[in-house]
Write a structure and sequence with these properties.
80% of the residues lie in helices and 0% in strands. The chain is an all-alpha fold.
Length: 87
């Protein structure tokens, strides 16, 4: 719960106009990674999917994010979407 609250606050703070684009992207990436990990530990695969989709948009070539997203799709009983992510 603490991780989720902290990462949610960091994600909200990343939207502040005081950050340059590179810093904003880094904070968003780290906050979403923390949220996805925390929700994986809870077994909340729908929330995992939400944050991993956002991470994939930030870094489309990240194979680890795509693998984790495929796992979330599979656990949500969407095997076709999982296969698409892995391809």
């Amino acid at each position: 719960t603490d991780t989720i609250l902290g990462c949610t606050a960091a994600l909200a703070a990343a939207d502040s106009p005081r950050w340059d684009a590179a810093t904003r992207k880094r904070y968003q990436r780290e906050a979403r990674t923390g949220l996805a990990t925390a929700f994986e530990a809870r077994g909340d695969h729908a929330s995992v999917k939400t944050h991993l989709v956002a991470l994939r948009e930030l870094d489309p070539k990240n194979a680890q994010v795509r693998q984790r997203l495929a796992r979330a799709h599979f656990l949500l009983d969407h095997p076709d979407d999982a296969l698409t992510e892995l391809q």
